[in-house]
Design a protein that fits this description.
Pfam family, one: Methyltransf_11
Order of helices and strands: HHHEHEHEEHEHHEHHHE
Organism: Natrialba asiatica (strain ATCC 700177 / DSM 12278 / JCM 9576 / FERM P-10747 / NBRC 102637 / 172P1)
Strand order of the largest sheet: 3-2-1-4-5-7-6
CATH class: Alpha Beta
Keywords: Methyltransferase, Transferase
Shape: globular
GO biological process, one term: methylation
Helix content: 40-55%
Largest sheet: 7 strands, mixed
Number of domains: 1
Number of strands: 7
Domain Methyltransferase type: 49-139
Length: 235
């Protein structure tokens, strides 16, 4: 995993949500959660694994919706933040946090209905092996996101501390074929980069988001979207 040492630092975990999902970043948080819920619905009573769960944004949300969720992450500091978040929430389902490696998942084949990985695919050293491992422990569905090569994110991607990877639609489609996953749906979003939203107040970000949404959603502009949300099923 790229940026592993940076990611596991205590100060990074403590500031992770505030730096990324405050101010205009709240719009990103809501959109990502919407994408996950739309892909998985109905959530209640499903068994779900989230890989690289971080501070538990998605794991807690899914448990609140009645799912039985396991959140796995390599960072003890991130898991500490997730457990604290879970303690403050009223959960309808169950939630367990485990420390582990996304490349060697400690679960048997077909163990979960759904496996998700958000904000991680761009850090995987071997994306095909990572996707195969997700598929191995899923019995029905694999959901993930990618940051796109032909987008505004490429402008500042070189400056990120973990050296993340951008993907074209064709590359991801090839990976799906190699791992025997069938594409159900892919949604493209955010013509403007995430970093811009996080840097400005929520009010201004909301205005930009309205313009962004109006311009997006078309075949031409979709190619310039920063992120894609992939919903796939096992063949």
């Amino acid at each position: 995993m790229k940026g592993q040492e940076w990611y596991q630092a205590d100060d990074v975990a403590e500031e992770y949500d505030d730096k990324r999902f405050s101010k205009g970043g709240q719009l990103i948080d809501r959109r990502e959660k919407q994408a996950v819920l739309e892909a998985i619905m109905p959530v209640e009573d499903r068994t779900i694994l989230e890989i690289a769960c971080g501070t538990g944004r998605f794991t807690v949300m899914l448990a609140e919706q009645g799912a039985d969720v396991v959140g796995l992450d390599i960072s003890a500091a991130m898991l500490h933040q997730g457990r604290a978040k879970a303690q403050r929430a009223e959960l309808a389902g169950t939630l367990e946090f485990l420390r582990g490696d996304a490349g060697r998942l400690p679960f048997p084949d077909d163990h979960f209905d759904t496996v998700i990985a958000m904000r991680f695919f761009h850090l995987a050293d071997d994306p095909e092996a990572f996707l195969r491992e997700m598929r191995r422990v899923a019995s029905e569905q694999v959901v993930f996101d990618t940051f796109n090569r032909f987008s505004s994110r490429s402008i500042y991607n070189w400056a990120l501390p973990m050296g993340s990877r951008l993907y074209s639609k064709g590359e991801v489609s090839t990976l799906l074929a190699k791992t025997n996953l069938t594409l159900v749906d892919v949604e493209d979003d955010f013509l403007l980069p995430y970093g811009l939203y996080r840097a400005i107040p929520n009010g201004l970000a909301s205005s930009l988001r309205s313009i962004d949404s109006a311009l997006g959603g078309h075949p031409i502009t979709d190619h310039a979207a920063s992120v894609s949300y992939w919903n796939t099923r096992l063949r």
